[in-house]
Amino acid sequence: MSRWSDLQRNTRRLLVGAGVASVATPVSLAVVLTGVDFMRKARTPDEHYVPPAEPLPAAVDGNELTTYTYGEYLFEAMIEAIDSATDFVYLVTYIWKDDEIGQRFKDAVIRAAERGVTVCVVFDGFANLVVSREFKRFPPSVHLLKFPTVRSGLVVNVRRTGRDHRKVLVVDGEVGFVGGYNIGSLYADKWRDTHMRVCGVAVWELQNTFVDFWNRHRKRKHPELPDSGAPVWNSRIMAARNEPSRLVFPVRGLYLEAIDRAVHRIWITQGYFIPDREIKAGLLAAAKRGVDIRVLMPEASNHVVADWVARSHYSTLLRGGVRIFLYQDVMVHAKTATVDGTWTTVGTANIDRLSMIGNYEVNLEIHDQGQAARMEEIFARDLDNARELTLEEWESRGLASRAAEWILEPLHPLL
Asked: What does the CA dihedral 124, 129, 133, 134 come to, rounded to 10 degrees?
């Protein structure tokens, strides 16, 4: 009995040791890569800028859509909408920097509250840890909900996981904004992102997203917001909302369904592209049946570890006929896709585990050839500032790179 007990105990120790090593090695390398990348960026200031691009309009099912790809133009439109508010302002953002642009947004919501507008603001606590406490203080006239950095039950309750990664503004139920842009001066002209403005009855899709989240997570001091039913059914513009507290993650389903239906082309732009098994299999199956699949992502994003983990998929994708384009000089942070000149999605969710089955996210799904044409126009323009990564180039990379990809690949489920 003692020999068997010793064997069991030693086996457990070996398994635990192997498990710790399997985690510790990629984590250690991730820490080193992050440190090196931080020092490199500190030594080399970013002097690259996104060229201005006028917003592109489209009319869809009685709604006016405007697609923004230049932050300065977007921020002006958002602040103008807040300044025109007479009833309510609902604003949620993942990051809200305490810089010039951040202060302009803060001043705008305070002005709105001071003239009697109901102002409800949400930002993520973890994402804004480096933002000063003073900046995160608002007068009582602004109803502020800071999504907690740490929540009780986080380890044992899946419903308590996830960050609030959404970026949504709704004003008076008449105009709404959603997309990848956070609030800050960096994003005005140094990041290439995509945001959409909606005017019309489809604004309800974004308003309902905010109201449901607010009423579910508000504290006793916060007002309960009016909850109305949808004014239009069978709309060609609908919101898909990932909500960990409800274990609902429909954005992933949107992508899987659209990829499965594709017969001509799938053009995807992502800041972080780390597809799960099913999405990758769907893309490879579509490529096999002759679909033109192009994925545009940054050559070097702001998260170096995500870049390295993403590279572990390159060989399979390239060999399977998926074309990969790397955006040059600046960070492309957009979360968009368009399929067959008919289907489009624009929103806050990346194609990675954190967005697909982790964070609070919202993407608009749009069925319209006019809007799809606008998205294809934007994609083609972005390709002018990108280079294609060929299979030949990728397979000629060095052993050190291959080793790093292999070591970091276990981090895939965490990103």
From this structure: -80
Question: What is the pTM for the complete model shown?
Answer: 0.90
Q: Quote the tokens at residue 400.
A: 């050190």
Could you tell me which residues come within 8 angstroms of residue 379 by beta carbon, excluding any fewer than 6 positions away? 267, 269, 294, 296, 338
Burial class for 399, CB neighbours closer than 10 Å (0-12, 13-18, 19+): exposed
Cβ atoms of 167 and 186 within 8 Å: the answer is: no
- What pLDDT, in 10s, does the model give residues 57-103? 999 999 999 999 999 999 999 999 999 999 999 999 999 999 999 99
Secondary structure of residue 210 in the 3-state scheme: helix
Contact yes or no for 159/247 (Cβ under 8 A): yes
Quick one: which H or E segment has residue 360? none
End-to-end Cα distance, the chain: 44
Nearest Cα to Cα of residue 269 among 186, 179, 367, 397: 179
d(CA 272, CA 110): 34
Asked if 410 and 22 count as a contact pair (C-beta separation under 8 A), the reply is yes
* Identity at 11, one-letter amino acid code: T
Q: What is the pLDDT of residues 102-131, one digit of tens each?
A: 999 999 999 999 999 999 999 999 999 999
Q: Are 210 and 170 in contact (CB under 8 A)?
A: yes
- The pair of structure tokens assigned to 358 is 């982790």
pLDDT at 155: 60
What DSSP letter does each residue of 214-270 carry, written as one string? HHHH--TTSPPPP----S-SS-SEEEEEEBGGGTB-HHHHHHHHHHHH-SSEEEEEE
Exposed/middle/buried for 315, CB within 10 Å: 0-12, 13-18, 19+? middle
